[in-house]
């Protein structure tokens, strides 16, 4: 019987060649680099998209606020001026001709003022309307059968002889009644939404948004009730505006290829949208009412409103300058909501939304190209690694054979190891490869830094542009507001006088009508340059306040110093001798200036300084123009 030596079974790890061991770490390192480059490229793209989106939204919100400022301020200023004129006795509301003349002068001096009227408790009304929106123009052409144009005027009246008819007349260049173009039956003007709202508010305010029954579009009115000395209501001042102009502005304001904007009030009613969606709906009684944002046909608007309600419960609870990102139909939207309020009770929300896809398409393509190049580099590097490994392993195999011979007891076997030089060459090659890779990464990093510097320069240029008026190349309204707020706080701390000049070019509308808007723009440029040259201190600021209005902020300047600068400006413009044959005060371009200077206190804000200068400017115009009037606290 034969006996066999039994030995326990052993489990050996799989054999791996030295060549694989040399190649595997290298390949793994390249794969990690490829993945890291792809990930960093994607994250860099996302951050770039977020940064660009934020900049676009901030620019858009500033432009929307500027547009709304003109829309709201012009309307409410007209009502405030008329109310003050009634209270001071300069406007007799019992005299229809006096009211008509006052309103005509006012609407002529305010190119952005759409309408102004007065309705009394005797159911009478008188006022003017200016056609500023394409929708109103289309409606007016339809009902009158005439070819009117943007800027055309209507005189509207409800007379004591027939309080059931609201008549609209074309007017001549002095606002006098001409041809009756159409009339509208009316039961009682005091039942109009804006009249009832004024009765309820008992002060200057905004009406609720309402729908014009005839034109089927949204409107809002600046309103103020008028009382006599005994507190008896005499009537209501009204300046109504169509809201479709805001939608037209939003539709032309391109956030991005498919970005959208809309405005809604605190109750969730749509005010305007960039998609020009019909802003009203028909209720169960068949009457048009404002459209709720959550009932919009646009999925973006509905998704944004649903997100707000899920997160905060209602629009009244959202924080200021709310930003968030939501998914809508397979895409992500960057959304920002900014409040827009004023002192007369207006509470609107500006909503801007930009889809991520507007920017990520090119970034994703760049990422794919980057990954493809990395994979190609991986393939080429792996091939080179295999060849190099074979070349390196030959002397190592010879060393192994010599070691095995010694292990077998062949001590006489001379151990001759060849290949040490090759190993040193391998190390040198590896270092050279490392050096090449380092150069590649340094080149990539330098390129990123160059791109970053270019973006920084572009942002700096954009910042400069954002502070300048595009036509006159002096500071714009935004820069003015920021500078005034800063200087007000500085002068409050230092308790020094801060001077302000508000400037208006006399009869500039007539100048434009006579010489054309291109020459009007050249006139604005000359006036702006002259003002900026006259205000020569580095601490002073000359800015375009709006339209043909300019403003100058004079730090550390009392009323006398402010008056001196204002007169230098007025004289400098007069010395330009710019012809103005349709001016009522001179044959050349002249200025009306309102000035003030005040030491800031804790009880008031910079708006008081503006109001005082504005009051002085108003008095300068009222007293005959081409003059400077001072107003102090």
Provide a descriptive summary of the structure in words.
With 633 residues, the protein is an alpha+beta fold. Among the domains are: 95-243, PAS domain (Beta-Lactamase); 246-359, Beta-Lactamase, CATH 3.30.450.20; 477-630, Alpha-Beta Plaits, CATH 3.30.70.270. Helices cover 48% and strands 22% of the residues. It is built from 13 helices and 21 strands. It has helices at residues 18-88, 96-109, 134-144, 193-201, 244-252, 299-312, 357-407, 420-466, 477-494, 508-515, 517-534, 559-576, 606-622, and strands spanning 115-120, 125-130, 153-159, 162-171, 177-185, 205-206, 210-211, 218-227, 233-242, 260-265, 270-273, 280-282, 288-290, 322-328, 331-341, 347-355, 498-505, 541-546, 549-555, 591-598, 628-630. Strands 1, 2, 3, 4, 5, 6, 7, 8 and 9 form a nine-stranded antiparallel sheet that branches. Strand 12 and strand 13 (288-290) form a beta hairpin. Helix 7 (357-407) packs antiparallel against helix 8 and helix 10 (508-515) crosses helix 11. The radius of gyration is 38 Å and the shape is globular. Mean pLDDT is 83; it is low at 1-9.
